Amino acid sequence: MPHDPIPGNPADPRPAISQDFTALDIAVHQAVKPPPAPTRPSLTPGRKTLVLDLLRTDPERPWRSQEIAEAIDCSNIKSLWTQLSTWVKDGMLRKIAKDTYALVPDWMRSNEADTVTI
């Protein structure tokens, strides 16, 4: 006597036994891009502004990255290292020694352009 299959859901529209495909229709639709997220000005100063403001408190002083991180409450020191290196390449900072930075003289005074955060 053959064994009865496990009873399924009677509302399931799939056939109870396998069937061969006889046709397959595929529709390809163009992707719809979502609208861009609205931009709004940041309510807090960016890291660049925080670092510049800190270094300008004593512009002749060499600053270690750990001191900068602690002063601006930055918990990701590796990210800060990357930014400090970028700012050295951009001519904003000088790297005085390993892990030690100072402001370039042209950046010792505040400038409206470098304090606006968007």
In short:
The chain is of the alpha+beta class. It has four helices and three strands.
Explain what you see.
With 118 residues, this protein is α+β, with helices and mostly antiparallel strands. The protein has a domain at 47-115: Arc Repressor Mutant, subunit A (Orthogonal Bundle), CATH 1.10.10.10. Helices cover 29% and strands 9% of the residues. It has 4 helices and 3 strands. A 3-stranded antiparallel sheet has the order 1-3-2. Strand 2 (93-97) and strand 3 (100-103) form a beta hairpin. It is elongated, with a radius of gyration of 31 Å. The chain starts with 46 loop residues before the first helix and ends with a helix.
Number of strands: 3
* Overall pLDDT confidence: 81
What is the CA-CA span between the terminal residues?
77 Å
Radius of gyration from the alpha-carbon trace, in angstroms:
31 Å
Runs with pLDDT <50, length 5+? Answer: 112-118
Question: Strand-residue fraction?
Answer: 5-15%
CATH superfamily of the domain at 47-115: Winged helix-like DNA-binding domain superfamily/Winged helix DNA-binding domain
CATH topology of the domain at 47-115: Arc Repressor Mutant, subunit A
Based on the structure given, which CATH architecture of the domain at 47-115 is correct? Orthogonal Bundle
Helical content (DSSP H or I, runs of 4+): 25-40%
* Strand arrangement in the largest pleated sheet: 1-3-2
Order of helices and strands: HEHHEEH
Structural class: alpha+beta
Number of helices: 4
Q: Which CATH class of the domain at 47-115 applies here?
A: Mainly Alpha
Assign an overall shape. elongated
Largest sheet entry: 3 strands, antiparallel
